[in-house]
Amino acid sequence: MHNYQSKYATFSTTSRFLGSRLSTRLLPLTGIFLLIATVAYLHHLSFFTPLDSTEITNASNPPPPHQTPVLIAQAREKWNTKLKRQSRTVEQAAREYRRRYGIDPPHGFDVWFEYAESQDVVLVDEYDEMMAAVLPFLEMGSTEAKRRAGLLRKERQRANRILVGGKREDNEDYIRPAPGEEEDRLRTDKLVEMLKPVMGLLERLNWPEWSVMVSEIPEPRVLNSFGDVLEGETIWELSMPGDRRLVESIKKTCGPDSRFAKKVDNYTFEYGLEELYKGWAEWDEYKREAQGKEAWPDDAPLVDVERDMDICASPELITSHGLFRTNWNTTKLLVPLLSYGRPSAYGDIPIPSSFQWDYLENYLYDPSADRTWEEKEDVIYWHGEPSGGGKGDEFFGSMHRHRLVALSNPPPSPWNHPSNLYAYTNITFSDLSPAHCVLFSCNHLTDFLPFTPRTPFSDSWRNKIVLDLDGWGPSGRWRGLISSNSLPVRSTIYHEWFTDRMVPWWHYVPLSVGVTRDGLGGVVKAFLGSDEGRYWGSVIAEEGKAWAEGGMRRVDMTVYVFRLVLELNRVFNGGQWRYEIPE
Ligand SMILES: *[C@@H]1O[C@H](CO)[C@@H](O)[C@H](O)[C@H]1NC(C)=O
Ligand SMILES: *[C@@H]1O[C@H](CO)[C@@H](O)[C@H](O)[C@H]1NC(C)=O
Ligand SMILES: *[C@@H]1O[C@H](CO)[C@@H](O)[C@H](O)[C@H]1NC(C)=O
Ligand SMILES: *[C@@H]1O[C@H](CO)[C@@H](O)[C@H](O)[C@H]1NC(C)=O
User: What range(s) does the Glycosyl transferase CAP10 domain occupy (predicted)?
Assistant: First the structure.
């Protein structure tokens, strides 16, 4: 634990770090700002009890003015606490595991820990994202987990199986795609590739054979809408384009007492861009009357990330995210399936994506194409395909990508609301592929929204702020974006393998999935509206980059999937496959 650790030794004394930067860089800039920042900062140092997220969003308990530096200071504290409490020895790590999850770690934990340590992995204890998905299977026991895996195997839809352990032919790897699985195998093959460096270590663990399915589509699919199926019945609930069947399945999964089940019937996703524009026109009218000019909030909007991603608590999400209109079938019961990400109501087990690993060179970070913060344009940037919605319907007003492109560009006539926001945005759709024309009514879409020719992904880094948006599934670009000198802004409902390892406002800026024009304007104003704002933007951009270089390397993905394999061995081979903590 050397490079990353020593790098963060500088960051962990951030009182000095921030202090010195504040005095050398900001003192000449603005006295008033410095005063506010210093007051907030000292306040923070001496008697600031960190606000928790519910307090942050509590309107009767508003955060101080100029909240950005305060949020950043709190987030930095949270990160430093996380770093400091990481285990240093396998005994510590095993006890921390037991403290968090109430059981012993899985068999091979010591081998895993030694490997993680040899690779300078710092966050050895942060596996809550993985465990949230794995614990339900550990609780049901290996017989039931195997039964469910068998049901999925019999009715696999766009998923392949990998085999682990057991007796093998001479030329077969310890972990290998099951013979005869002929689907497109990109995701399955990449997962096996991630495990290649530790095949030899796994070999020594000598487990009886087990297998697990890997999803070959971007969308998550595991729900628990019925809890089980009757003998001979299908495990899939069929969805049709744009109907509300998926919403009904999520309702059942969340349970009748959830806010989702109680309120979602009041929300519709059947509205077009026209309605979005009409709504803005009324809103602008209202604000012109109230304030005489368009006003954005003074700071980036507060986003309670956990709440924003909590589907069972947030029926409003169906009005602003395309997930709810997908026509992929979902399961009626929890089955073990590895996918790239899971919204909170889903039971998919997250694995790193092939895009984060190495698939599509275009999505990887290329330092030679990057610029320094100062050289970057004062622009918020996103270019991409019009994916991520219902297939075959035209209700673009509730698809997340379509909404974002709509609100960051001048609307077509007859709607007319000029805004200086557009001077700071470079957010358009790139080419419309024939595949999308089958899914959407393409001509109609190009009437409303700007399309520009596809440009290289590396163009993103010409801009100070880069947006990351979900597509049909989790975005493939996050690693490329957060690795750069740009400020990454993340808008997602997906829990990925690394979600609990980052701290919002220290490594990135969260943007609500239900973003409004005011919300986007707030981000622009907070980080491009003044020298102070740009300074704070550069701080988060640097921290995000350091995080990616220290915690989202390819070897970090290998270490994650290595540990996942230990957990899955216990899921399928039984609770006796545990690591006994030496007393
Ligand atoms: C909001 O804050 C007030 C005052 O601190 C408190 O009384 C109230 O319970 C809070 N409401 C919520 C929803 O947290
Ligand atoms: C649905 O919305 C209507 C109109 O705003 C409201 O009167 C009603 O109470 C809402 N119902 C639920 C279940 O929230
Ligand atoms: C959903 O399941 C049905 C029945 O197995 C199948 O025919 C259909 O192709 C599936 N839909 C998708 C989008 O895979
Ligand atoms: C937007 O970004 C593209 C690169 O992807 C660039 O070619 C174009 O000039 C930019 N547009 C503006 C208005 O800056």
Answer: 301-572
